[in-house]
């Protein structure tokens, strides 16, 4: 899991005092995002004269800073990036029980009116454990809509990466009528043109060679860190696995992990079920997950392991490094992805990533489409 912001003593006091400490302690430094998130919620205890109902959804503290116009989904996503698990649970409980901010987790009508988008999807997945059955059913429909849109977008990129194309430069003297290369045949037989009779004599008809890729059996193992900071990667990994499933010659595995390992391969064809079953949070034992996946490799030289994580390892790092070195030594290709969302923002432990590169792994940041293209190149 990505490290939480580190605060010095002054920033801690500034966070505790809120706007009351702004004059003497400054604007907040590294703790400013935390202060805004807390103010969005607890600033409601002290409404200012003339504040209307909209003040419930804005920053109510004063002292020179502008109001933060956060939506409920944005606030939920923000606190999951800024605070430890125990604090997040307290904030969510206070939001619902103390302030009645239930737009996402309890208000069915609001959820029905919501426009499906990736930010709302993340908020739903982070708060699904707070939903009653009726709201949860509606949330599942919203998740399905967003996932369907993501699949439609990525599927085109996957097909473009994996589908072979007819290559005009590869021609044959034999072939079916559907493969007849008319333009190339005319061009190469022009020297046989009979000027007196005004006819072109075709001595050597040419045909396109069918170059559709036929893949030998390969295994692609997607390992996804499901700690709280990696939710975007979990979403896109589930969608990517669904798109890879069913491609000729590819056996896809999907494995989620924190301190435990969960094999989701049986649900790869249903990314909605995968996402609704993900339990975010906890530590990160990458080495344990890689060891589990290594045991499922059938033909080492025809296997690719993709580890999607921020590489902040929670167990002894040498376990992961040793596993990667052994995998590379047996011919398995190992790819470490620091991010797998649409922005591919690479926030990860660069020191550990460097050790994995030394062990033979490839490490980088790719969007789902770029991952599909990389896999297609390796599977040729």
Describe the structure in your own words.
The protein is built from 15 helices and ten strands. About 6% of the residues have low confidence. The chain has a six-stranded mixed β-sheet, sandwiched between helices. A two-stranded antiparallel sheet has the order 1-4. The longest helix is centred in the middle third of the chain and has 30 residues. It is elongated. It has 380 residues and is an alpha/beta fold. The chain folds into three domains: 125 residues, no CATH class; 38 residues, no CATH class; 161 residues, von Willebrand factor, type A domain (Rossmann fold). 34% of the residues are buried.
List the helices and strands and how they pair.
Layout lengths: L8 H9 L4 H4 L6 H11 L29 H11 L2 H14 L9 H6 L4 H10 L5 H30 L8 E2 L9 H7 L4 E2 L4 E2 L6 E2 L9 E8 L5 H14 L5 E8 L3 E3 L7 H7 L8 H9 L8 E6 L8 H13 L3 E5 L12 H9 L3 E3 L3 H11 L2
Parallel strand pairs: 5-6, 5-8, 8-9, 9-10
Antiparallel strand pairs: 1-4, 2-3, 6-7
Helix pairs in contact: 3-4, 4-7, 7-8, 8-10, 8-11, 8-15, 10-11, 12-13
Mean pLDDT: 78
Task: Report the top-level CATH class of the largest domain.
Answer: Alpha Beta
Instruction: Supply the number of structural domains.
Output: 3
Task: List how many beta strands DSSP finds.
Answer: 10
> What's the N-to-C terminus distance?
34 Å
What are the secondary-structure elements, in order, as H or E? HHHHHHHHEHEEEEHEEHHEHEHEH
Helix content: 40-55%
Superfamily at the CATH H level of the largest domain?
Answer: von Willebrand factor, type A domain
Largest sheet: 6 strands, mixed
At CATH's second level, what is the architecture of the largest domain? Answer: 3-Layer(aba) Sandwich
How many alpha or pi helices?
Answer: 15
């Amino acid at each position: 899991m990505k490290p939480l912001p580190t605060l010095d003593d002054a920033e801690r006091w500034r966070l505790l005092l809120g706007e009351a400490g702004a004059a003497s302690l400054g604007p907040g430094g590294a703790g400013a995002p935390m202060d805004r998130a807390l103010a969005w919620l607890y600033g409601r205890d002290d409404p200012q004269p003339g504040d209307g109902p909209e003040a419930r959804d804005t920053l109510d503290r004063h002292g020179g800073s502008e109001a933060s116009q956060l939506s409920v989904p944005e606030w939920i996503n923000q606190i999951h990036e800024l605070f430890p698990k125990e604090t997040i649970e307290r904030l969510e409980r206070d939001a619902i029980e103390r302030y009645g901010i239930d737009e996402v987790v309890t208000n069915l009508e609001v959820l029905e009116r919501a426009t499906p988008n990736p930010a709302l999807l993340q908020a739903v997945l982070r708060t699904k454990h707070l939903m009653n059955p009726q709201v949860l059913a509606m949330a599942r429909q919203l998740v399905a809509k967003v996932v369907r849109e993501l699949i439609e977008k990525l599927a085109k990129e996957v097909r473009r990466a994996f589908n072979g194309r007819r290559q005009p430069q590869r021609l044959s003297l034999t072939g079916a009528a559907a493969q007849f290369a008319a333009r190339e045949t005319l061009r190469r037989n022009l020297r046989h043109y009979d000027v007196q009779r005004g006819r072109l004599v075709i001595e050597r008809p040419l045909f396109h060679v069918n170059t559709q890729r036929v893949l030998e059996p390969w295994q692609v193992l997607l390992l996804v860190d499901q700690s709280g900071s990696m939710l975007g990667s979990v979403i896109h990994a589930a969608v990517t696995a669904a798109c890879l499933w069913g491609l000729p010659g590819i056996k896809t595995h999907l494995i989620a992990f924190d301190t435990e390992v969960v094999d989701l391969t049986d649900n790869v064809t249903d990314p909605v079920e995968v996402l609704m079953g993900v339990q975010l949070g906890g530590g990160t034992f990458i080495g344990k997950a890689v060891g589990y996946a290594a045991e499922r490799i059938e033909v080492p030289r025809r296997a690719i392991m993709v580890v999607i994580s921020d590489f902040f390892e929670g167990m002894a790092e040498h376990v992961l490094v040793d596993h990667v070195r052994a995998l590379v030594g047996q011919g398995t290709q190992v790819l470490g992805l620091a991010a797998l969302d649409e922005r591919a923002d690479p926030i990860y432990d660069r020191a550990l990533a460097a050790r994995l590169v030394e062990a033979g792994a490839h490490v980088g940041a790719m969007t789902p489409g770029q991952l599909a293209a990389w896999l297609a190149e390796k599977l040729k």
